[in-house]
Amino acid sequence: MEVIMGIGVIYFLVIIIANTLGAISGMGGGILIKPIFDGIGYDSISAISFYSAVAVFTMSVVSTYRKVKEESKFNVFLIVWSAMGAIIGGVGGKNMLDIMLGNYSSRVVLSTQIFITILTIIFALFYSFFNWKSWSLSGFYWYIICGLILGFFASFLGIGGGPINVTLLMIMFGMGIKDAAVYSIAIILFSQGSKILAVILNGDLIYFDLSMLFFIIPAAILGGLFGSILSHTFSDKYVENIFRGMLIVVIFINLANGIVLFN
Fold it and tell me: pLDDT tens, 92-101?
């Protein structure tokens, strides 16, 4: 019981910090939660993926609600079509993860997740530093394609959102970083919601320690509140610095996990 309480408190603190930064940057907290929980090594890959999904989904609900309450202007069509794509992509990502867990060792699956996560971070860093020209696309089919990609990677990697969300939105639709962060969080809400729903419908909840949710959900709510409040006050430049800082930190966390995994 003391061990569970201790792990729960650690999870609580990690999620508050991760979700606060994730809500500000639009990446979601999972990009920090997943590798840190992997490093702690207390839970299985599937359990960590589920806990991360719950934390990021809860944060995205809080953050999106506050944005709507602030009467922020949204491109409703972008959100609706991207969300549809994200739901399908999210289910596909979860199924792919389940297939890999059923056919390969946890070590192989985790190393695959680490490798792909680092690749997406490098891609996001290159875009952030070199300011590649955006494509300024429009049309429901592009929104769906964007959602499919984001939903799949978010669910498969277990990171909720990740660096590719904000970057892809900026590249495809020519958004500024703060606008991309808002839309990213809204899309995360649907992709992670579909993943959690799939877990419930498949009857997989029995495999997880649901008592951890008493630590995870309150922390996620607080992180979402803090992040949305700070995001409103920070400039685009400050948000971009947080975005870059998170990317660099996560690269080192994933590399450290990879080194431990192969030693």
Answer: 888 898 899 9
Q: What is the pTM assigned to this prediction?
A: 0.84
With beta carbons less than 8 A apart as the criterion, state whether 15 and 33 touch: yes
H-type alpha helices, 104-233: 106-130, 140-157, 163-173, 177-201, 213-233
Cβ atoms of 185 and 24 closer than 8 Å: no
Q: Are 52 and 158 in contact (CB under 8 A)?
A: yes
Domain that holds residue 203: 2-261
Give yes or no for a contact between 257 and 34, defined as CB atoms under 8 angstroms apart.
no
Per the structure, the count of domains in the chain is: 1
Please identify every stretch of the chain with a pLDDT value under 50, giving residue numbers as ranges. Answer: none
Closest listed residue to residue 4, CA positions, set 253, 221, 214: 214
pLDDT at 20: 93
